[in-house]
Give the backbone structure.
Amino acid sequence: MSIAARALPVESAGNPVLALQQHLQHKGRGELAAAVTLPARPGVFAPLPDELHPGLKQALQARGIERLYSHQAQAWAVARSDQDLLIATPTASGKSLCYNLPVLQSALEQRSKALYLFPTKAL
């Protein structure tokens, strides 16, 4: 029987990650060696770049994005200076804006095209 099909504790019903952790800690057979919960940290923000195309600013603001995370602003600056860039941040930290904003900006400024290549399998 899969973990998803088993009854999970009520307190973890809304959080599948917590449910799996609790299952492995309490009913697992040594599958979980350790679990560490890190405290939340406040985000570090930067204003939207002044040179960002007005249409992009408007689209971001329409989605409630009034500022960038610091890593997004740093990625913008590096990408706009034609340097290579490597981003490594946790899941759901906004990496997509790190590459999409410069690509969209270039498309709007120069009527350029972009080709996105992604692996079809997780590494």
About this structure: The chain has a mean pLDDT of 85. Residues 45-110 form one domain. The CA atoms of residues 4 and 20 lie 9 Å apart.
